[in-house]
């Protein structure tokens, strides 16, 4: 497994990109998932990019942003061009976005047709740059469950459209993540790992809360202490697919939790590998 940390985890912490890269290098991570806001804010400093990051033996595994799919077309295209340029600078082929702002049960047929049309356009732009557009499985978007995600892939019908498989949000949709993995496996290019203490606390991940400095962090727990059984998921998933994954932590004690979870992931995978060799 190639394991990355998300720079979004440090969104409310006074940490430079240099400090984050040093931490990642010295704690067993192979890459960073760069938040779009961070990439944009570093754009004027030519010192930073893929060559700089490689000096830490790290790579940018994904550029994660939120394309304004409901904006006027020129605005959307300009933003996509900007992200493609940033992805080139940081040496990643993966650009992550959300599939709109309405859930699959709430979007109208005409709205869905328009969104699919825009996704096709964005995929063509990504393909022209040798890149991929990843839609994240996320509530209140068109990829809020595996069935709608598969439908979007079929409707868009473009090889540049891929999936960022967020294990927790798949579980939130009511579908067993391992079952969903079997359905979506041909289209998955990245994973997000995070957990929650109980289903009743999932609202803590709502964007208007999780991005707020004063938002609640109640229920956010270490990867192996929550309601989603990551030991089982990792053991089974490691047999199905080569995983390129990011630890996405939104709570306090960022470095302590990331260090703890990355070590435990390695222990679980090493134990599983040893079992197979017996």
From TrEMBL:
It comes from Sporosarcina globispora. Residues 23-260 form the Xylose isomerase-like TIM barrel domain. It comes from the Bacteria. SUPFAM superfamilies: Xylose isomerase-like. InterPro entries: IolE/XylAMocC-like, Xyl_isomerase-like_sf, Xyl_isomerase-like_TIM-brl. This is 3-dehydroshikimate dehydratase.
